[in-house]
Amino acid sequence: MTSTTAASARTHGPTGRSPMQRFLHRAEPYLYSAPALVLILAVMLVPLAIGISYAFRDIRLLNPFGGGYVGLKHFQTLMSDRNFWTALNNTVFWTASSVFFQFTLGLILALLLNRPFRGRGIAQALVFLPWAVPTFLSGLNWAWMFNPVVGPLPHWLAALGILEAPTNILADPDLAMWGPIIANIWWGIPFFAITLLAALQAIPKDIYEAASIDGASAFRQFTSITVPFLAPTMAITILLRTVWVANFADLIVVMTGGGPADRTQIVASYIFTTAFRKLDFGYASAISMVLLGLLLVYSLLIIGLRQAMLSRG
Prior knowledge:
13 helices
């Protein structure tokens, strides 16, 4: 009897399970998540891999007999493409201006909405309303508003002395970029307002009460309490929004189409133009890979900087 029990223990282990049962027990969480992983692979990674492969092939719809391997030819062409470098410079200006004003105005709105006042619920609904408007419709509305024939903005700007005459700034090479930037600021403010308001409401009120008792001013409370508590949320929201805005070509495509004279062309809209107007999917994929690499480097720098700040703190 003793020898039989010992042999069973050697076969099934101390828990009485066979090796196959122990393997299935350890693999059970992965089996539950397998459908989601398969879906992610099918929807995200497979198209990404196909898109990357296009960057090394001659994929042009006007050349149905193409599709051959061209190696790094697209990237070599990209290095001497003046339109790409213009679009890259425009992307930096477009992204930095949009994110800066979105974050600043969103933070101000979050601070205002964090204070109790009559009608705060209605004010929150109105502030979050732009986020519910489709970007295509938002671009059309702002394009009409900048049109002096049907829109009021050129007449208001002329009355304020900003413009010499009520003209369409979307047709002015020196001012055209500010049209989509203003539309993007209006559309993106709710993102920062929502996330920062949620973070503000999570700060314990006792800390502010203790600071007030100690005689700390409102500005001192903001710099010593609010900003440190909001810092993690600020970092992740700015990171996410920067990546989104850099890839966000909807407003520019609808409002200006990249013109006039490519003054509003960003890398994302240049990819759209190359792929769906010039029908050169191979070259568009190469541009996409460069943009992906730049955004990955930016993301790693921001994450590394945040980790360094946390380790010092």
